[in-house]
Amino acid sequence: MDLEHRLKTHFNLKDIRVIPDADPMGTDINHRVSVGAASMVVSHVGPEDLLAIGFGETIMATLKNLGSFIQTKQVPVVSLAGGVGTYMKGISHLDASCDVNLVPAPLRVSSKAVADVLYKEDSVSDVLMASSSADIAVISIGSVAQVEKATMHQTGYISLGEQKVLQRKGAQGDILGYFFDEQGNVLEDIKLHEELISIRPEKLRDIPMVIGVAGGTVKAEAILAALKGQYINALVTNEATATKILELIPN
Questions:
Q1: How confident is the model at residue 26 (pLDDT cuts 50, 70, 90)?
Q2: Do 206 and 217 contact (CB within 8 A), yes or no?
Q3: pLDDT number for residue 27
Q4: Beta carbons within 10 angstroms of residue 73's beta carbon
């Protein structure tokens, strides 16, 4: 509770959950923070609210934990980025009555020209427009320090070589495929960014509540940068990571 209070006060967060590291069941961090994230969503989603979702293993686990809630309350869900295949793990258990709209495109395409064409397609632009006007969003935060374990690499969207180049350019982490520096500024002149089918992190600031879900001390620097960039205004993380984030803040 002390960690929650200090982080919430320092970053003026709307809500925070710090998951204790002591776990007699031995479940992994991603599972535990996804349970906390689902609980936070349930406590904030109101009638007729639109829920926007990012991608990644933790977010898909959060969606699974929200399955019965989404079905019972008929919460409309929309994706913040392309990559239909990556979303199927999270929505495959939902029945046909659920209102789920995914961006009908990959997260990354072969060139800027292809991305420009897709952005002009109504089926793509309509979903992205809806997601950027959502009432609440849940996103993960990637870290370049994860190296081969990073979601963007594991899903095949960037190579280790590209990741190293981004690191040399000052990348600390990524949100929805966009990489940002330690101050939370999205890196400029990055070829990858021109090939993404995703809303830019800056547009997240227009969503009333954006929950960042990320656990593991390897992500501490990236989470801190995302908080500095004001891309998230709520946080779910674990105890050791929360402690490290506070240690990184200058006195």
A1: low
A2: no
A3: 64
A4: 15
Which tokens sit at 17? 């959950």
Handedness of CA 186, 234, 59, 67 (dihedral sign): negative
Measure CA 25 to chain center: 26
User: What phi and psi, each to the nearest 5 degrees, are found at residue 173?
Assistant: -165, -175
Q: How many whole angstroms separate alpha carbon 39 and alpha carbon 30?
A: 14
Q: Which residue has the tokens 């990858």?
A: 192
Count the residues in the chain: 251
CA distance 124 to 109: 13
Which SS3 state, helix, strand or coil, does residue 198 take?
A: strand
Pairing of strands 51-53, 178-180: unpaired
Question: Taking the C-alpha atoms of 196, 197, 199 and 201 in order, what is their torsion angle to the nearest 10 degrees?
Answer: -20
- Tell me the pairing of strands 77-79 and 51-53: parallel
Rounded to an integer, the average pLDDT of 189-209 is 96
- Of 115, 50, 45, 58, the closest CA to residue 80 belongs to 50
Coil, strand or helix: which one is 38?
helix
How does 7-40 read in b/e, with b if 16+ C-beta sit within 10 Å?
A: bbeebebbebbbbeeeeeeeeebbbbbbbbbbbb
User: ∠ at Cα 98 (94, 99), nearest 5°?
Assistant: 130
Burial class of residue 57 in the structure, from the number of CB atoms within 10 Å of its CB (0-12 exposed, 13-18 middle, 19+ buried): middle
Q: How far is CA 114 from the centre of its chain?
A: 24
Which residues are 19's β-sheet partners?
238
